[in-house]
From TrEMBL:
InterPro entries: ACT-like_dom_sf, ACT_dom, Histidinol_P_phosphatase_HisJ, PHP_dom, Pol/histidinol_Pase-like. It comes from the Bacteria. SUPFAM superfamilies: ACT-like, PHP domain-like. Pathway: Amino-acid biosynthesis; L-histidine biosynthesis; L-histidine from 5-phospho-alpha-D-ribose 1-diphosphate: step 8/9. This is histidinol-phosphatase. Its EC number is 3.1.3.15.
Amino acid sequence: MVNFTHSISTKQFLMSGNKIQPPEYFIWETHGIHAGTGNDHVKHGVDELEKITEQAIAKGHPNISFIIHTPRLTRFRYAAEKRLDVKFIRGDNAYFNYPKKIEKLKEKYGNEISIKYGIELEWLGADLGLQWNRSKIFQAQNADFVIGSLHFSKEGIPYDGSQEEADQLIKLRGGVENYWLGYIEELIEMVDCSWEMIQIVGHLDLPKLFAPIPQALLELDTSDHILARRMRFLLEMISEYNLALDVNLAGINKGCGIYPHQSILQRAKQLDIPISLGTDTHSIQNLGNHFERGIKFAYEVGYKHYLSFSKTIPEKRPLRNSGFKEEKYKVMNLGIEMLNLRFEDRKQRRIPKFSFGGEFRTFLEHHKNATSLGDFEAIRIRKGNKSVTISNSVPENSSSKTSGLLSHHRDDPGVLSMIFNALASEEINVETAYLNTNNDGTATAFLTLSGDENAIKEAVEFVRGTGGDSFIEIRVGDNFDIPELQKGKNYLLEVDGVNLPIAISKQMILSIHNNSSGVLLILLSALASQNINIKDLKLGQRGNKGYAILGIEESSNSVSEVLKKLGPQFFETTHLQLGSEGV
Ligand SMILES: [Zn+2]
Ligand SMILES: [Zn+2]
């Protein structure tokens, strides 16, 4: 049992000056608030997006998470909808315009609060329902997460509609046990068919809203009852597919308790299934209610973390704020984001493995299989054959003097590629690079090179002769100080174990390519052709692989297009568009 040392209440806002401090136990919600949508959509949630957002800001919440149901097939309707003859549950207009509404909301309030938006994907069966859902998911652009939820039985009767509807279905199925068994089987089918489309499974034991939860599910660890066996199988499946469980607080107000029941969550914990948290509220009055109860509930089962999602990528967050090292979590989530962007969609949700060093070692106790990096102040994150190591402290610079090429030039797209072009034409390889942007419209580059000394001189002469007024100074020498790294909030240290120290910025490109002279020039020329300016650059190599990491201008569009066209010499090119708080 865990005792909380602080009394916790979301009502206790700490005031400092005029600024509202966020409540101590605040949830970055996933299954958050269902807002009003519009009259062509299923009637669900009533409040305006703007009003809700303003209230969340007033309460000092760092985050607000909106959620919208996917439109349903007409066969799946609540009794109330049938009575009122609500036919517009197809709701295409409201549904498809939702992302635009959220975009506008972000423009208006994005500086004051982090706004997230997700979809509650309605399971409507494996036949037409599945095709329907695939089309809906395809059109739901830019969602931060998708929750797979089962509200309707195969028979078209809802589990969460009314007591009458539940009773009707229980009768139809011949008893409460079969009622539950049908539900669990449908959920198994849902996960099996939809796991690639969703990140989270919603309110796992929803039927307890109108029917008693069977003893077999309360004794999930020991029972040999068919219900226990199928529920255990379902949880194993959720674990295998790396989905998270929705710890959903809506059941508190409805009198059936948090979804899922403690016995189910305990089993989930044994299987290392991550959780997300949410109030699943439909009105502004309940905004943020029961946060502390939800956190306590998960903590008592043994969870130390929960997930929130950003563009379907999971972010780890601590359940307890006391001793919470916010900056350190930002470093970790930034690393997760960088690594995940290197994978295709469906592998992104898989939580990677960690190593922690220096002050980050306090994370070790919460991560079962994490290893220590000793005093090395960094977090190493790996998945399959890919890894990144990042830190919030500036990597050490060797202070020794070295030979190389120094260029002071105008900070324009294409200037850097002129240097690389001249060097490649003389078959000179660039080994390391340091770039610096000065605030007078110029930049400096220092490159260490391998190749014939005379050839290097030839190349430099060529740049001098053809570079026009782009170059203020360019020369080779053997007594240069190695320049300092550009400064940033956080630093990348290694990629796949290759040393690539660079300040992390919002837009970067990672390239892993055939390590021969001229290959990097392809990338630089491609970027120059699109007027994309390079602000920072680091190079590394191992075996036949060359590594390059580039910081590029924030306004750079068309990067992803360019990267697709580089050709077979490039093994991996990733556009790292980073949205984490740690950038
Ligand atoms: Zn739901
Ligand atoms: Zn919901």
